[in-house]
Design a protein that fits this description.
This protein has 351 residues and is of the alpha+beta class. It has 3 domains: 82 residues, RNA-binding S4 domain (Structural Genomics Hypothetical 15.5 Kd Protein In mrcA-pckA Intergenic Region, Chain A, Roll); 83 residues, 2-Layer Sandwich (Pseudouridine synthase); 160 residues, Pseudouridine synthase (2-Layer Sandwich), CATH 3.30.2350. It is 22% helix and 29% strand. It contains 7 helices and 19 strands. The strands form 4 sheets. Strands 8, 9, 10, 11, 12, 13, 16, 17, 18 and 19 form a 10-stranded mixed beta sheet that branches. Strands 1-2-7-4-5 form a 5-stranded antiparallel beta sheet. Strand 4 and strand 5 form a beta hairpin. It starts with a strand and ends with a helix.
């Protein structure tokens, strides 16, 4: 039988849902006794038994409401729920010789420091020049639209095109599924730094607000007060430096929704400086004078994107089980923006 797409698996968090395929099987009445790994690999296209076994090992397969092992024997009427990390198909991955800032690499994982402006995965309008194209070249792979190469770097999370910073990439199926599990249980440590409009009202705080697509603009997300709508999202923030009309903050992600930090900070009335989609290119604080408006325009030219950087990343290595912690220095455009504001504060807002 063919699996039915599902999105309501209670045993998994919804985080990164767009990176996973959700399946539901009801075992036929006439099914002979069979190991569940053999059953699933026989009923799923383009999926090897090894890949199924990796998913089972990481707890992504349930029968009824119980997680099972690969040697579980399926029975007629069993309800099997299954999540499989998604291999995008239908797009040819062309290897391209694009420089990568590789922070760490071994046989299982890669840690990349992505520059602002680089799209992570090929998609509408961006079929070349992406991080995945660069990974294909680095790993020596040419992947057609219907092929799956086990060596293909697999993304288990993403950051926006105009956000800079750290990403972990799995090089094997085992690593992919193990890291995916860490993201689901929120054990991955991720901290971002952002320059936001305005003087934050406290030294630290938490935004716990569901996010949904903006019904007026499908390219945006928004906070919804309706607990039945959207996806649960939590961002912890603290002030690192106050610069008059802008603030440097650190954000720790508890969940990892699309545009989460950008939307949460904007919902507080403090959008990220330079974030055009969420109001960050408008003058939100300051004076009415032309000199100040020119200063802001100069700042936006210096850092022509949302001033958001994925600064730290920590995870348990999927094979060695060692905790690994990485950090990325502030990129030059954001550092230049901070220095520009410091000089402006010194000249115009003396203590």
């Amino acid at each position: 039988m063919n699996p039915e797409a599902q999105t309501d698996l209670e045993f998994l968090d919804e985080e990164q849902e767009e990176l996973f395929e959700h399946f539901r099987f009801v075992v036929d009445p006439g099914q002979d006794p069979l190991r569940i790994d053999k059953y699933l690999s026989a009923h799923m296209e383009h999926t090897s038994r090894h890949r199924v076994q990796c998913a089972i090992k990481e707890g992504f397969v349930q029968v009824g409401d119980k997680t099972v092992k690969a040697n579980y024997i399926v029975r007629p009427g069993d309800l099997i729920r299954f999540v499989m990390p998604y291999r995008r198909r239908g797009v040819e991955i062309l290897p391209q010789d694009i420089a990568l800032n590789i922070v760490y690499e071994d046989d299982d994982v890669l840690v990349i420091d992505k520059p602002a402006g680089m799209v992570v995965h090929p998609g509408h309008g961006h079929y070349e020049g992406t991080l995945v194209n660069a990974l294909a070249f680095h790993l020596g792979i040419s992947q057609g639209p219907d092929e799956g190469d086990d060596r293909m770097g697999v993304l288990v999370h993403r950051i926006d095109k105009d956000t800079s910073g750290l990403l972990v990439v799995a090089k094997t199926e085992e690593a992919q599924l193990n890291l995916a599990r860490q993201f689901y249980v929120h054990s991955i440590e991720r901290r971002y730094v952002a320059i936001v409009w305005g003087d934050m009202p406290a030294d630290e705080g938490t935004v716990d607000a569901n996010l949904m697509r903006d019904p007026a603009d499908r390219l945006r997300f928004c906070v919804t007060p309706d607990p039945e709508k959207g996806k649960h999202a939590v961002t912890h923030w603290k002030v690192l430096e106050r610069l008059g009309f802008v603030t440097l903050v650190e954000c720790k992600l508890e969940t990892g929704r699309t545009h989460q930090i950008r939307v949460h900070l904007s919902s507080l009335g403090h959008p990220i400086f330079g974030d055009e989609r969420y109001g960050g290119t408008q003058i939100r604080q300051g004076t009415i004078y032309a000199k100040y408006r020119q200063f802001i325009n100069n700042c936006l030219e210096l850092c022509p994107r949302q001033a958001l950087h994925a600064r730290t990343l920590g995870f348990v290595h999927p094979v060695t089980k060692e905790f690994m912690d990485f950090s990325s220095p502030m990129p030059s455009d954001m550092e230049g923006l901070l220095e520009k504001w410091r000089r402006w504060i010194s000249a115009n807002m003396p203590a």
